[in-house]
Amino acid sequence: MYGEYFNSNRRIPEEEYENIEPGTPIVLSNPSWGAFRQFAIFVNTETIVYQKYIKLEDGRDAYQIQVMSLENFTNYGENVLFEYKPSFEYATDTVVDNALSFVDDNIYLGLRSVVGDDFVLECLVGTEEFPYVLHSMNIGYHLSEERRKLVKYQHHAITIEGGWVIHFASTDQSDKPVITLQKNAKLHNPCLVTHDNESLPSRLDARNRAMLGLMGIVQFHNYNLVTNNCEHFANWCKTGKHKSKQVYKAIGSTAWLALSLITKTPQCFGGQND
Question: Which pTM was predicted?
Fold first, then answer.
């Protein structure tokens, strides 16, 4: 999946396209896309199967399994094709059968991954094993660590696969906080923040919401210590609600009520609430 792809991948030169083995998981990248990647299964040069994320007009999340040729799949400006190399073994002929079995013209409701990596994983391991493999990846957990800038505070992040987290934080390139990807190992003594629902489907939703933020599909506006901080982001990923307990404790319930009336909620492109 997305995090593991960054741990193990290989660029495929254009002259090798004709030699790609059927059933190979491939990933399309473009410098102009930022963090976004499109995951797919290579069947043959005329058949690339992938999952497309769709935001419906009423704001609901949906997806569709689509097919196109490799030429059309890679024919977008400065696209670069990679092979995703999972850490486990898989049978390529079974992967092809799995991918083709999902193909139809239907649009399905549900929050699937915006980059289609969950679809690729399901093709690789099969539908029956899919939830067990997801569970082993420790995705969708809410972590916090203590930090200090003048005063002590808690920084928050959401785990994804491959030892990565997604969080609302400053980067090495800018002091302006953005939603970004970081190795879990860079957090210092993180603690697990538990929520009422820690089932696998709920954690998968949290992971996929974090991915929407990372890709910029959901706009989290400018960072604000009181109204739009890292804990707001982590709680939104986990529950769909935009809140921060540490701000509530710091300023009190009366002030919090006033602030809640002016706090901006995450927005999708097109101005629709997620």
Answer: 0.85
